[in-house]
Amino acid sequence: MSATPVTIAYIGGGSLNWATKLMADLAHDTTLAAQVRLYDIDHAAAQRNAKIGMRFADVSKGTPARYAAVPSMQEALSGADVVVVSILPGAFDDMACDVDIPARYGIKQAVGDTVGPGGFVRALRAIPMMISIAEAIRANAPRAWVCNLTNPMSVLTGAMYQAFPAIRLWGECHEVTKLRHQVAWIANQEAGAARYSHRDVEVNVLGINHFTFVDAIGLEGRDMLPAYRAFAGQHGNSGWSPREIDPTDEHDLYFMDRSRVKFDLYRRFGIPAAAGDRHLAEFMPQGEYLDVAADWEFTLTPVSYRIRDRAEKQARADALAAGQGVPYADRSDEALVDQIKGLLGLGQFVSNVNLPNRGQMDGLPLGTIVETNALFSSLGVTPLVAGRMPDALLAITADHAARQSALLQAVADGRWDDLFDLFRTDPLVVPLPAETARQMFDEMVQATAHHLPRDLLKEAS
């Protein structure tokens, strides 16, 4: 059987993380014949990744993917079947300001890319970028399937729909995979062997990006919710991780957790939390988890580490592009290749994605970007009915979702004078006196001024 051709445009093709995961997944796959066009404002980074892609092609299990770095977004998009959007909105220096300025005002953030003051200001500089990408897709690849990997996921997925309502777009996030790994671990412990992977675990997902929950868990026809309930009860106070966290390893220290926040939210709201602790904590008031992160056994990730880690990844990527090291056609945990295959008619696939609410999630307004399961098939991306969260949890989720929608609309309409009032309503900002919150907002806006419209800077001055 011949491989199915597919042309993929990768916007942000100089990526040091997601691009190489896609390369490994394409090398592992045996059903696609992919042509991947890499576009990045840093063209040299895209050229490096094209060289890396050809090294993955050399170890492919099926038809080798072909990679090319292209100099313009138009060239990348023209005739594309699939578009992947994976950009960094600004630079790590901007992200450092998103985290460090609020910290001086007593606001701790574990990540700072989704909600809280960091997520809010990151959205301000990213929304215009994503609108321009959506407009380019409308002009050059209006029928392409589009996957957004960029945070803040909810706001930016909404921004692309705002700019191009007919866009065939979903937002992709792997946080729910963490709970599915836990359930597979439980089942393997019971079986006494490594029989199951996270891909065998089915969950019904409800929420918004990085604040996701599940109310049903299945594995080979078995209801796994009772087993997970017992697991969470057993480890709620002691915590759990799939292996010991090495405190001398910075990646372990800043990215692994012991699910204490996840288990506590389950206890409080009666529904298992799916995302990782660092993200979940930022949706809750400051004093609940973030101020006492060490007690809950997770760590705030400093941007200084991200900068060091990026330098190390770049050195490894440069070496791989130069012919050093060995690329492996190992399948990652990411779902993108399976989703593409579903859309091309190569089997159906269900996964959690971010889409406008078309009724799949009860209790949130239509059009709100929600995260639930969807079916990928030759018919497209079809959201699956998820149901409704418990009322107390829905109230928290609805508050964040409404702020995200209002933020997007204010930026799209140029209503800059509405932004501070929205900024003040985030649970992490609410405790600050109005004058202090205004001072922090102005300082954050000025710190990222080179990415923002002049009208907004006028409002903040």
UniProtKB/TrEMBL annotation:
GO terms for biological process: carbohydrate metabolic process. Pfam families: Glyco_hydro_4 (PF02056), Glyco_hydro_4C (PF11975). It comes from the Bacteria. Substrate binds at residue 151. Coiled coil: none annotated. Residues 205-429 form the Glycosyl hydrolase family 4 C-terminal domain. Mn(2+) binds at residues 173, 210. Binds 1 NAD(+) per subunit. Keywords: Carbohydrate metabolism, Cobalt, Glycosidase, Hydrolase, Iron, Manganese, Metal-binding, NAD, Nickel. Its cofactor is NAD(+); Mn(2+). The record marks 113 as: Increases basicity of active site Tyr. GO terms for molecular function: hydrolase activity, hydrolyzing O-glycosyl compounds; metal ion binding; oxidoreductase activity, acting on the CH-OH group of donors, NAD or NADP as acceptor. Belongs to the glycosyl hydrolase 4 family. PANTHER family: 6-PHOSPHO-BETA-GLUCOSIDASE-RELATED (PTHR32092), ALPHA-GALACTURONIDASE (PTHR32092:SF2). This is Alpha-galactosidase. It comes from Yoonia rosea. The lineage of its organism: Bacteria, Pseudomonadati, Pseudomonadota, Alphaproteobacteria, Rhodobacterales.
